[in-house]
Amino acid sequence: MSEWLMEAKGITKVYGTVVKTRALKGIDLGFRSGEFASIIGYSGSGKTTLLNILGALDKPTEGSLWFQGEEVSRMGEKRLAAFRNRNIGFVFQFHHLLPEFTALENVLIPTWIQAGNGTRRKADRAKELLELVGLKEQINNKSTDLSGGQQQRVAIARALINEPALILADEPTGNLDSETTEQVYSLMRDINDRLGTAFLVVTHNDHIAAKSDRIITMKDGLVIQDETTSGRPSEEVWQTVAPGYCRHCYKDSDEVNNQLL
Amino acid sequence: MRFELKVALRFLREGKGQTLFILLGIAIGVAVQVFLGTLITGLQRDLINTTVGSSPHLIFSGSDASSLMPESFSSSDASDSSDSPGSPRHSGTATVTTAGNFRREDDTLKNWADLMALLDEDASLTAVSPVAQGNGFVLRSGQRWPVIVRGVEPERANAIYQLQAALQAGTMALEGNGLLMGSALAREARLTTGDQVTLELPGGGRQSFSVTGIFDLGSQSLNETWLFLDLGRAQRLLGLGDDISRIEVQMTDIFAADTLGAFYQQQLSGITVDNWKDQNADLLSGLQAQSSSSVTIQVFVLLAVTLGIASVLAVSVVQKSRQIGILKAMGTPSGSASRIFLFQGAFLGFGGALLGSGLGFVITQFFLWGTAQATGRPLFPLEFDPGYAAAIVVIATLASVISALLPARKSARLNPIEVIRG
């Protein structure tokens, strides 16, 4: 078995048949168990497309995706669905809880999909997870009666319920204020430490990116930088990554500073 | 409970207003179907009952009996009846005699006991009644009323004509020289039970009888013309000897009259079997047309209901596309995603149809109550048939599931990455 939990080999993605848009131009990436990685890059750089392919929601035009030695990109619709259900947890920017269900039910839905039915053991586990994300009191609240941060925490608990090896998060804090962002990030990091679940987070948030074990920078459908950060202070990490990712951010902030001066 | 069921029910429960509206729509449609079906069935049953409830469904008479009777029925020759007054008989041909002003084809039944035995054994027949029939006059204080003399065995005739129930006065005793008379004739001739009347027969013979009972068969012409006599007495009076005119029969499944009649017609050569359906062809084609129009209306109601469900579910798929997308991302296979909507269709159809059946029942009762207001009796009896309502519930549920097919397909095809980006 390879060293990777998940490995993408030469992945390209082309949209359209007449006018072809190449969203990914050949991505080779591997992710280890228990890793906490971020993907950063401008809008349109291919981050989300890549995440959808890694999450088996989308198929690559070329290349292959491997998970624990199995080729995911060859699976049919049914097996893909089962694969997602068992091995991948999803956390989306807009929470995507089902408003018809309570917090607890939302967390349990992946287990229903798997087994067709709920069990007491799973329900207990769901309560534990909701406790873990700090929502012990809101277990039976309708998801519409929860704040944005609470909803996102329910979504994280839901992503964890089937004990996946990897959680894919697409801008999980993009919709939240900075304080809540910090809470959600700490929670993900905590789960990563305690349960050993690997995280791959697409983000625009410098703090989250800088605190990851690994920062992957994308531009125009290519990975242009892949930096392992562990052990280094986040400010220093950011200095190495920023030139590739956000040159204009600094230029802009210089301009702002100049204007202020 | 299966996961798709759970989601389907929750979607319905959360979309309360929408769910209620469509349930109500289905319920009204089904109620119309149930009520219309009950009404038409009741109306037709009443019409048929009025038409043939108290009259024979099959009539067996002879057709040139002498030569064409099958082995079992032709053991003796036809000469028994040749002493019938004014009815010369030529073997092998149908004979016509003139009796008063009536031309009468000779259709007497000979050796009918065997036929009676055969018919008595047929379990599908509810009544078998031999009749000796002829024309005559009732004489009373110098006046003459034309009548049809019907010789019967009282018990057997009662099974067809419900004579006992039709009696206005007197009893059904026909022994000796008793006779039963129609109410209209009794009124006109100013006769009551116990009165003596003189009967004049075509041959000129006269005989005195006493009125033992007066009946009302619900038909003016029957009440004016029919007299019931004892069978043996009538045979002698009419000069039929041991023969009779016909055997009248009632059966359980009255709509099988033509096939059963044809069956006997084929089995028994030399016998003519008439059935009520041929004699009431106009009525039947009218009823047929009524039934078809009722079915047509019901089909269109069902179609409207089905389209309603289809459109509500189609809208619902769009409304719930985000939820479907997220369910799929979390590993719900397409088949499962489509079942969510099939279940919704089934629930809506079944629930709405149950509600509608109840409503249909209420409307039926209301109709009975309403039409009973003026006369104290409903216009005609309606029987709410739970089997029919159940059939409609099943059909409506199936139609609803079918109408959910398109939305379900849409749900199955929904691509999760199109909705999860927000």
Automatic annotation (TrEMBL), chain A:
Entry GO MF terms: ATP binding; ATP hydrolysis activity; transmembrane transporter activity
Keyword Chloroplast: no
Domain ABC transporter per the UniProt entry, residue ranges: 6-245
UniProt family annotation: Belongs to the ABC transporter superfamily.
Protein name: Lipoprotein-releasing system ATP-binding protein
Naturally occurring in which organism (per UniProt): Anoxynatronum buryatiense
Keyword ATP-binding: yes
Entries under Gene3D superfamilies matching the protein: P-loop containing nucleotide triphosphate hydrolases
Upper lineage: Bacteria, Bacillati, Bacillota, Clostridia, Eubacteriales
Transmembrane regions listed in the UniProt entry: none
Top-level division of the source organism's lineage: Bacteria
SMART domains: AAA
Keyword tags: ATP-binding, Lipoprotein, Nucleotide-binding, Transport
GO cellular component: membrane protein complex
UniProtKB/TrEMBL annotation, chain B:
Positions of the MacB-like periplasmic core domain: 19-253
Single GO cellular component term: plasma membrane protein complex
Residues forming coiled coils: none
TM regions (residue ranges): 20-40, 297-319, 340-368, 388-406
Main localisation: membrane
Annotated compartments: Cell membrane
Region (Disordered): 63-100
InterPro entries for this protein: ABC3_permease_C (IPR003838), Lipoprotein-release_system (IPR051447), MacB_PCD (IPR025857)
Domain ABC3 transporter permease C-terminal: 298-416
UniProt keyword Transmembrane helix, yes or no: yes
Biased composition (Low complexity): 70-91
Top-level taxon of the source organism: Bacteria
Pfam families reported in the protein's UniProt record: FtsX, MacB_PCD
GO biological process: lipoprotein localization to outer membrane
Membrane topology: Multi-pass membrane protein
UniProt keyword terms in alphabetical order: Cell membrane, Lipoprotein, Membrane, Transmembrane, Transmembrane helix
Family label: Belongs to the ABC-4 integral membrane protein family. LolC/E subfamily.
Protein name stated in the entry: Lipoprotein-releasing system permease protein
Source organism: Anoxynatronum buryatiense
